[in-house]
Amino acid sequence: MKRTLGTCYYPEHWPEDMWEVDAARMAALGLTWVRIGEFGWSVIEPAPGELQFDWLDRAIDTLGRHGLKVVLGTPTATPPRWMLDRHQDMLAVDAEGRARGFGSRRHYCFSHAGYFEESKRITRLLAERYGRNPHVAAWQTDNEYGCHDTILSYSDAARSAFQDWCAQRYQSTDALNRAWGNVFWSMIYDDFEQIGLPNLTVTEPNPAHVMAFRRFSSDQVVRFNRAQVDIIRAHSDAPIAHNYMGRVTEFDHYKVGADLDIATWDSYPLGFLEDRVGRPVEDQRAYARQGDPDFQAFHHDLYRAVGKNGRWWVMEQQPGPVNWAPYNPAPLPGMVRLWTWEAFAHGAEAVCYFRWRQAAMAQEQMHAGLLRPDSVEAPGFGEAQQVAAELTATPEVAPAQAPVGLIFDYEAEWMWAIQPHAKGASYFALVFDTYRALRRVGLDVDILPPQPEALAGYKLILAPGLMHLPDALLTALLASDAQVLLGPRTAARDADFRIPLPLPPALPGLPVTVSRVESLRPDMPEPLRGGGAAQMYLEDLETTADPVLETNSGVPVAVGAEAMIYLGGWLDDTAMDRLTRVLCARADLETFDLPEGVRTRTTAAERFWFNHSSQERQVGRITLPPAGVLRVPLV
Ligand code: GAL
């Protein structure tokens, strides 16, 4: 498939006489896509019912005349100020019970019935007007669900919708009381209307209650998105996307993705480094201008799984310093190109740079664009130009299934967040540590949803931390041809957050029972025989199975049967590397000894090499300069 480039553009921010020149420059740069419109509601509808589409008609026409394809966003992430006069209680409410104010964006509650109707109304108006416009070649619903912590809302609207959701799911309060174990601390309900949201309780709320609220909140996003999709589909054949984010896990992306045609995500490698990647401060320093070598790749692989038939894009690519991280350095020269090629190597159909021109006003003045505010080319422009030229020469990247599957489950993420047992323990971090170990030895990874039908064709499947393991998924794992890694905390809870009996993990063919669980302070790792340590989280394993890893005193930490290993702890990098090599040997997978910061990705026709470090690196006979990218045809 041919790979393409694009940009994010805000015609409403610039005098109309600049649009023509902008479009001509975009086309000359070799861009294919221009995303517009996602924050434009107050200029499309300045007052309720007063529609001004003329400017948008002309903007789309101008871009189209230059051969550019438009991705049109629905503007529902930024309801205009007048909307609050119509729906005074539409704002989301935080866990402290405070309404979140107007003056930035994403100021709505997914459960508010009035706003839900407004979002459908504006979507319908856009779909009717542009659904058959030849230049509108794709759609984006809303913008970044979950950005700025906006999924969980503790509003009155959310409470009453949650009560309905509970009534649907449990049918009777008796069933709900039994499922949640409400006899504990006298929390029995006798009417669904008594059920509140799990905030402002005196001490920790019932985890089953919180889990239900997390599921409900995710379902509200799915419903909100689906309503827009249904309307757009009725008027347009163009594919529909949403732009997800890095490490935003409060809703189930697979479920939202099932209604869309393309998954896209917004990749800000330097922005993410300090707050989202979760690596030690030395790594943050070493990668300050390059971004973490695995964080973007992880999300590329994740969104390939979220997108229907593996279709995914980068909708927003950082082109220079951003404005919102604790520190905002400029990328090392070459990194904008590297990030773009890395996305293509992982299967992105398109990469769009955010934004075309740096804004001279409002919140994002400190955020680079491809152009400076005075329209002179910024450093990112040249790198985009280089990629465009390279794409002209070799536009094809052929996809391939990876040999390794790594399950990522949003419900497990919520369960760990609700009951971490150790300060800082997070399912995302555990899965990401596992992913990093696989990438360090040069393996390609497909992230998999927790679905039985996703498991076919892998040599190795890893499912760390899957706190709830549905029977059908366990059956499929046992039946697969792959070597399987489970644990820690596998099947530790049932769907309603109870400890199941027999005690977990209860794996047919692998005699192991978790008899006790402890969490460890960061300064008390448990050293393992042969190197490395278990940290954070350690299970006592009652087992007669063969040990794979043991503590220095000979207590088993990982045990194995023929095609399955159960791991009863969270490993540090050294121990994880050892376990990865055991797994690869069992699965007959070739591994590399990659130098620090070098990553590789193999497609059906070639092997890509990426140097994320700021130093030159040597791999065999290959020399990679800092930020170097190399494509080698497979022989
Ligand atoms: C994204 C968002 C954009 C812009 C960008 C800045 O999260 O979708 O609208 O704010 O960040 O980096």
UniProtKB/TrEMBL annotation:
Family annotation (Gene3D superfamilies): 3.40.50.880, Glycosidases (3.20.20.80)
Binding site for Zn(2+): C109
Active site, UniProt feature: E144 (proton donor), E316 (nucleophile)
Annotated CDD domains: A4_beta-galactosidase_middle_domain (cd03143)
GO annotation terms (biological process): carbohydrate metabolic process
Catalytic activity, reaction form: Hydrolysis of terminal non-reducing beta-D-galactose residues in beta-D-galactosides
Known EC number: 3.2.1.23
Molecular function GO terms recorded: beta-galactosidase activity; metal ion binding
Residues that coordinate or bind substrate: R105, N143, W324
GO cellular component: beta-galactosidase complex
Highest taxon listed in the record's lineage: Bacteria
Domain Beta-galactosidase trimerisation, first and last residues per copy: 402-589
InterPro entries according to UniProt: Beta_galactosidase_Trimer, Class_I_gatase-like, GH, Glyco_hydro_42, Glyco_hydro_42_N
Signal peptide: none
Enzyme type, top EC level: hydrolase
Family in the record: Belongs to the glycosyl hydrolase 42 family.
Protein name: Beta-galactosidase
UniProt organism field: Antarctobacter heliothermus
